[in-house]
Each structure stands twice: as C-alpha cells, then as structure tokens.
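Sample entry (306 residues):
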Amino acid sequence: MSTLRFDDRVAVITGAGRGLGREYALLLASRGAKVVVNDPGGSLTGDGTDSAPAQSVVDEITAAGGQAVAVTDSVATPEGGQAIIDTAVEQFGRVDILIHNAGTVRRAPLKEMSHHDFDAVLDVHLRGAFHVVRPAFPLMCDAGYGRVVLTSSIGGLYGNHEVANYAAAKAGILGLCNVVALEGASEGVLCNAIVPGAVTRMAEGLDTSAYPPMGAGLVAPAVGWLAHETCSVTGEYFVAIAGRIARAVVVESPGVYRPSWTVEEVSEQMDTIRDVGEPVIFPVVPDGHADHIRYSFGRAAEGVRS
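Predicted structure, serialized as tokens:
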C-alpha cells in the first residue's frame, strides 16, 4: 500500500494547539502538508488567550522540516474566522483542507445553565464552524477542490448530562456538514464529520481510570483519510474512539401509511411505526432530502392504490 501524502496541500486546522487538533496538524505536516495552526490558547471554558500552544506546534513542525504558521484569532467571531482563512491564503496561496476542531466546554445541569454559557459554547463549536467554512468554501469551489472535516460528538448524536450547549452545537454540526457536502458535490469539495473520542483536556474532571487506550493518535488517521484527495465519500459521519472506527447514519423505520389518522390509531400502530428492523437510509448526497420526500410520497401513492 502506497503512503498517502499531502505534498503541496494547504491545511487549516482550528483548535490545533493541543489534543486532537495538535495530532491532526502533526500528522498532516509529517506527510507534506503546509499547515495553518489555529488556536487562541484559551482555557477549557474559552477564557483568556495564550499564543504558546499554537506556536509550540508550529515549532515542532518546522523543526521536523515542515511548513506551518500559527494564528491565534478566535473562530467565535466572523472576523476571527476570516482572519484564519486569510492567513492561509497570504502565507501559502490557497486552502485545500479545512478541519474545524476548536471547542470549549461549559458544564451545567439544564435547570441551571445560563444563556451566556449556552451561547459561548455554540459560538466556538457551531458558529465557529460556519465562521471558517464560509470564507473557505468559495475558495475551494473556485479551485475545484476541497476537503472539509467538521467535528461532531457522541454528545451530539446521543446527548449527555450537563452539556445541553455542547450537545446542541455538535448536533448542529451534522446539519452544516450535510449542506456543505450537498453544495460542494458538484464543485469537487467533499465534507464529512468526525465523531471523535479521546482522552484530552476536555476530559478534565471525568474518571477515565477504566478507559482503554484512547489517545488522540487513534483518531488522527481517520481524519487524515477524510482530508486526503483519495477520500471517496461525502456527507457522512465517522466515529473514531478507542481504536474503533465506524460510520454513523440517520435511519428511519419504514413507517405506516394511512389516509387519515386519529390519536388512538397512532397509539395502536406505535410498535410498527417504531420498528427499525428494516431501516430506511437516505444518503445526504446526491439528494437525500428529495429521496426522503419521494419515499414518503411513494408510500402514500401505494396506499391510495391499495
């Protein structure tokens, strides 16, 4: 098997000063990519700034003979996102790869979570994704090539206690991923989501003593493939945790068609409505939205004929 390299590719990686982002940056750089290492260096909650984490990764890359530049602007604002992409263009001429990994955590029970803490987490995870995708996407489309990897979470797929802000943001990432994939499909721009699990700074305060090996290095290869020119999928979600890589999908049950319903009939049919023994899947690309509608309309037409 030949080595998959990134020679002459330009990669922008947010949240790359520590943890998963750092691992992605080092991996791509070791395989020839020119890397924009973005990280404002704030605390786990997003407070404060420190240029050292991003610069440390850049120093590590350049010491190994690679090319990289540090950017400490925050993805939490449109101006910050624009500055990050502008740096890539100014320093390296273009953007081929965008990996949005930046994230913060502000934990609180739903009964107690403040509006400020809810918004602050969405600003980095979800709005932050848009703030970098928005300026990068047209450049990729003009070039006829791009690889976008957005970061979701098992919290976004299944929820978790005391992170309503984080869960909502990570679920929103999947919707954004779908649209980037749809609108980029005819332009040579692919977009997928990574759902990573690793013991990093975000695990602070959690009891990880019984966890199997869960280093960031077990996630990076999956992200590397999604960022590579040989990536052959778009609009998909990939789980990478503890050495397991899997695809996550949205499925529907076949459902039940009736020309009219009462509340009582919904109750009577609920077991069949919920039965996913024969799951129905509508891939995002080329047209999952329309395929879903066609399927539902087809069931209605069959019901009328019968």
